[in-house]
Amino acid sequence: MPTACIHHPGSKVTLESERLIVSYTDEEGSTQKRELPLRDLERIILADCVSITSPALAESMRRSIPVSLIDSQGRFLGAFQPATPDHGAARLRHYQRTLEPDFTHSIARKIITAKIYNQRRLVQRVAANRRAEDKPVPSNISIALDTLDRTMISAGKAENLDSLRGYEGLAAARYFSAWAALLPEHFPFERRSTRPPLNPVNAVLSFASTMIYHEMHSFIHAHGLDPALGLLHTTENGRWSLALDLMEPFRPVLSEALTLDLFSHKMLNNSHFEPHDGGIYLNKIGRSKLILQYEKRMERQFMSESIGHRTTLRQQLENQAILLKSALNDADKFVPFLMN
């Protein structure tokens, strides 16, 4: 259980010896407790309706366990991060390199090329699985694959960030058209909507993306870099632009592949969503189901063809921060994540 996600309303997290104790009231009004050994945890996610004591928070920091806060709609509010006082030189180098257009363009181009490659692989794999199961394959899949292939090549040659973003947008339009055709008919997807998500599919995509975002932010921080300094996403107040950059190649294999699975295998239905503030969001049961499947996907070992050994998606997510840190001295050392 690397991640503990606690979102039952009114829950309280306390410290007892080397364990976190989660106390909450069940639907019948009885007080329940669950023990979470700290040695088993790598990160903690708390909903804003959950409280945590200072001793529990302090012990989490001592053990380098980040604690993230999300609201009821799954939006990332902030995080408590373990201190990283020994990365001053790396951060100074990070600031310097981020101001070098050649460096930022080189890394951004790799990120978007990998993202488009992973989009293409996801559509290709899902379509192949459908054929193997004698299920119908949408007619626009072949056109989408051809467009993504051409756009990926063009993105790899993009001469500036504006043209790179243009290729990213072109790929996204064709990709999501094909991706949407792979969803069940009773859960349609017309376009991406985020603030607020306007339908169940967008609600799942947004919540899953938030999970990746706060994990990427924690890994960047843990390895001494500044998560606010963007390469592809402009550095600006109010967001962790580097976390958004480094998570881009993981969107197809994590949030988008997971969303397809949850709806195609009927793990989510309309009872798992609720309207709020003009949008549609996962309810408590829906969030629990998504988080469970997210964790399974993140921790499942697989043989990576690109790196040549067994790994997990969570290890590869952290590896992006490690490789970017190495790339501060040699840009060629940054290799984005590629889906098998």
Describe the structure.
The chain has 340 residues and is of the alpha/beta class. Helices cover 48% and strands 15% of the residues. The protein has helices at residues 54-62, 88-98, 101-132, 141-155, 161-180, 200-222, 241-247, 250-264, 284-299, 313-327, and strands at residues 3-6, 12-16, 19-25, 31-37, 43-47, 51-52, 67-70, 76-80, 273-276, 279-282, 302-303, 310-311. Helix 3 (101-132) packs parallel to helix 8 (250-264), helix 6 packs antiparallel against helix 8 (250-264) and helix 6 (200-222) crosses helix 10 (313-327). 37% of the residues are buried. The model has no long low-confidence stretch (mean pLDDT 90).
Task: Set down the secondary structure blueprint.
Blueprint: E1 3-6, E2 12-16, E3 19-25, E4 31-37, E5 43-47, E6 51-52, H1 54-62, E7 67-70, E8 76-80, H2 88-98, H3 101-132, H4 141-155, H5 161-180, H6 200-222, H7 241-247, H8 250-264, E9 273-276, E10 279-282, H9 284-299, E11 302-303, E12 310-311, H10 313-327
Parallel strand pairs: 1-5, 2-6, 5-7
Antiparallel strand pairs: 2-3, 3-4, 7-8, 9-10, 11-12
Helix pairs in contact: 3-4, 3-5, 3-8, 4-5, 6-7, 6-8, 6-10, 8-9
